[in-house]
Design a protein that fits this description.
Helix content: 25-40%
Order of helices and strands: EHEHHEHEHEEHE
CATH architecture: 3-Layer(aba) Sandwich
CATH topology: Rossmann fold
CATH superfamily: Isochorismatase-like
Shape: globular
Length: 184
């Protein structure tokens, strides 16, 4: 257990970046994701340098025999491989497959975080007003502190993105700031 004088262990949780962009609203999302790739890649590098866990949580898109490699291959073969390649999971990254919006809903993520003694997660990826928001809420109700780099999340609807960031900041006490200013 981490004492109150120590910094809690933080895990970088990267949501749904292995995306083939073959869905409704994919072009709006791709436009936003193009701006988020560099901040996310920087966070991955910083987390690895700090020896913090890097956990990819990705939708299986209804393919029940998916694996991390199959999801990566499908994303690289999709419409926007240039958004996927820079965020390719490192070999030592942890991987959780999800089927719904929240990274926690019926996944082993909570158990994994407890095993790693993680008390704080930094959520990045896509989509701010959907999977990031729902995952932040599920972390909050589990007493896991949340940080969200405002430039490390992609959105479909800018207005809803801003509202979701504000909801996470106010209602979940999330630390919301630019990736470069986020402490890992």
């Amino acid at each position: 257990m981490v004492s109150e004088t120590q910094s809690p262990s933080t895990a970088l949780v990267i949501v749904d970046v292995l995306n083939p962009y073959e869905h409704e609203d994919s072009e709006q999302l791709a436009d936003s994701m193009a701006q988020a790739v560099s901040p996310i890649a920087g966070l991955i590098e910083r987390a690895r340098d700090a020896d913090q866990p890097v956990i990819y949580v990705n939708d299986n898109y209804g393919h029940w025999n998916s694996s991390s490699q199959k999801l990566l291959d499908a994303a690289l073969d999709g419409r926007h491989p240039e958004l996927v390649e820079p965020l390719r999971p490192p070999e030592d990254a942890l991987f959780v497959i999800k089927a719904r919006h929240s990274a926690f809903y019926e996944t082993p993520l909570e158990y994994l975080l407890r095993q790693l003694d993680v008390q704080r997660i930094m959520l990045c990826g896509q989509v701010t007003e959907q999977c990031i928001l729902y995952s932040a809420l599920d972390a909050y109700v589990r007493h896991i502190r949340v940080a969200v780099p405002s430039d490390g999340v992609a959105f479909i609807d800018r207005e809803l993105h801003e509202a979701a960031l504000e909801m996470m900041r106010r209602n979940m006490r999330a630390d919301v700031q630019r990736a470069a200013d986020c402490a890992l």
